[in-house]
Design goal:
Elements (H helix, E strand, L loop, with lengths): L8 H12 L17 H16 L4 H15 L6 H20 L2
């Protein structure tokens, strides 16, 4: 996964686990550091960062994360689903803007 030289994977990972975490694993014993989902979350946040850099609309990337959660992971969409995805996308955008 390449998101560019100025974005650290650890920062994207922090965003994913603090704001998105659709499976709620960060609160489980050992947190995300012991989770099998760490690589998967990294991949999705990398996709968001790359999409934002390439000029994709925020809403399209929110839809992407919602789809990952509801279709790929098979979780039920709740009122919080889109809110969490939106917060994660906004944080990644803010991160990218602070690097320019």
């Amino acid at each position: 996964m390449s998101v560019g030289p100025s974005v650290r994977l650890s920062v994207l990972r922090d965003i994913a686990w603090a704001q998105w975490d659709p499976m709620g694993l960060n609160g489980s014993e050992g947190g995300w550091r012991r989770s099998h989902a760490a690589d998967e979350y990294d991949r999705h946040m990398g996709r968001v960062a790359t999409g934002l850099r390439n000029g994709e609309r925020n809403e399209a990337l929110v839809d992407y994360l919602v789809s990952i959660e509801t279709v790929h992971m098979g979780l039920t969409e709740t009122p919080a689903t889109r809110k969490r995805a939106g917060a994660a996308v906004a944080s990644v955008l803010q991160l990218l803007e602070s690097k320019t």
